[in-house]
UniProtKB/TrEMBL annotation:
Transmembrane segments: none annotated. The gene is ssuA. Belongs to the bacterial solute-binding protein SsuA/TauA family. SMART domains: PBPb. PROSITE patterns: PROKAR_LIPOPROTEIN (PS51257). Residues 1-19 form the signal peptide. The lineage of its organism: Bacteria, Pseudomonadati, Pseudomonadota, Gammaproteobacteria, Moraxellales. InterPro entries: ABC_SsuA_sub-bd (IPR010067), Solute-binding_3/MltF_N (IPR001638), SsuA/THI5 (IPR015168). This is Putative aliphatic sulfonates-binding protein. Part of a binding-protein-dependent transport system for aliphatic sulfonates. Putative binding protein. The keyword Isomerase does not apply. One of its GO terms (cellular component) is membrane. It comes from Faucicola osloensis (Moraxella osloensis). Gene3D superfamilies: Periplasmic binding protein-like II. Keywords: Signal, Transport.
Length: 338
């Protein structure tokens, strides 16, 4: 098995700048001034007005609807805030961008935040979508003789490292008494995995929407198993950089409110949303619609049950020596101010 990438195993150190003390005659006055300034910062969130929010998104989900409908721009324009959308192919590089302050807010599946937290990344959980277990699956080519996950022993299986599909594959193998050591894991981004899968260089591929529907419809790929019954948190998470969430809580709440409106619109009219997906991905109409219908839509702030399920996932990765250290998911959960 390949070594876990730098994002998954490296910690991010935090530098602290300590101010020197002045003479005793002025120390008390300086401390009082500093405390007053800190109090004002907490009240105002940030002394500089926010001019732009940078949001990372992938090729499916409510954020695509927000970008295409301009719903969020309309919500934030009253505050003079512009929206900059940044496209990503998968969750891990998006969370790296959050950590390095290249975006402020984004969405991934259940697994990327776990590895990001283990790496010490600067991010917090904000909200989550309803679980969609049929939106991820282990698939094989149309002409494959494989009928079950148990038959993957010794076979080449592609998955994106640190993605939600990574955990789906782990749990599918575990259910059939196998482990990552029993298969030939190929860590590939979806575009590279699709090319390898289509050319016959892979025995199986574990992937999510819209890549899943594309492979099923266009390549006639067969599903060995989806995520049903494998994991409780087969959901999308919304995350923000720690600094952004602390300084701009009202903006975070506005974003979640807009996501809720988008989810309701998608549920009411999946065909219109599928046309948006088709536009941004160049997928065929039937593929785009299938990918939209495979998901459940409905956003909520983080609950204790969700934290518990994420913690179980983190512990499973650690037990299988795929996570470099144990983490406590509850330590990076953001709650909206009341």
């Amino acid at each position: 098995m390949k070594k876990v990438s730098a994002l998954l195993i490296s910690g991010f150190s935090i530098s602290l700048l300590l101010a020197g003390c002045q003479q005793n005659t002025t120390k008390s006055a300086n401390a009082a001034t500093t405390n007053e300034a800190q109090t004002n910062d907490i009240k105002s969130g940030d002394s500089k007005p926010l001019e732009e929010v940078r949001i990372g998104l992938q090729s499916s989900g409510a954020l695509v609807y927000l970008r295409e409908s301009k719903l969020l721009e309309k919500s934030l324009e009253k505050s003079g805030i512009k929206v900059n959308w940044v496209q990503f192919q998968s969750g891990p590089p998006m969370l790296e961008a959050l950590n390095t302050n290249n975006i402020d807010f984004g969405t991934t599946g259940d697994t990327p935040p776990i590895f990001a937290q283990a790496a010490g990344s600067n991010l917090v959980y904000v909200a989550y979508e309803k679980p969609s277990p049929q939106s991820e699956a282990v698939i094989v080519p149309a002409n494959s003789t494989l009928k079950s996950v148990a038959e993957l022993k010794g076979k080449s299986v592609a998955v994106t490292k640190g993605s939600s599909a990574n955990y789906t594959l782990l749990k599918a193998l575990e259910r059939d008494k196998l482990s990552f050591a029993d298969i030939d894991v190929k860590y590939l981004q979806p575009s590279d995995a699709r090319a390898a899968f289509e050319s016959g260089k892979l025995d199986a591929w574990t992937v999510w929407e819209p890549y899943l529907s594309s492979a099923k419809i266009e390549l006639k790929a067969r599903v060995l198993t989806d995520a049903t019954g494998l994991k409780p948190n087969n959901t999308s998470f919304y995350l923000a950089s720690t600094d952004f969430a602390q300084k701009h809580p009202d903006v975070v709440k506005d974003i979640v409110k807009a996501i809720d409106e988008a989810d309701k619109a998608i549920t009411a009219d999946p065909v219109t949303f599928s046309k948006m997906i088709q536009k941004v991905t160049n997928l065929k109409p039937d593929v785009a619609l299938a990918s939209v219908k495979s998901r459940n839509y409905g956003v909520n702030y983080i609950t204790d049950d969700i934290i518990q399920a994420q913690q179980q996932e983190a512990d499973t990765f650690y037990k299988n020596k795929l996570l470099p250290k144990q983490i406590q998911v509850k330590d990076i959960v953001w709650y909206p101010p009341k």
